[in-house]
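Here is one chain, start to finish.
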Amino acid sequence: MADTKDPTIKTFEFKLRVNKSFVEACERELEHSRQIYNAALTERISCYQVTGQSLGYVEQSRHLTEARALPEVKSHLRTIQQDALEYSVN
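Its structure:
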């Protein structure tokens, strides 16, 4: 049988009304994401140099979960942290 799913793609357009505090919050999250990415990459490089083995996403995700006990890590959005970690592995 043929696939009967509707191929229609729906799109939505939103207009953001940004203010100074919104821009500052976005910049903070972007900076934190950059720090997570760089720390994950550094951790992977160090692990390879010391042990000769690669450090995978699952293990680094565990480390990030442990780091969320710290208030400076916990105060940021978890999904953004996970995305930064995922991009550092790929």
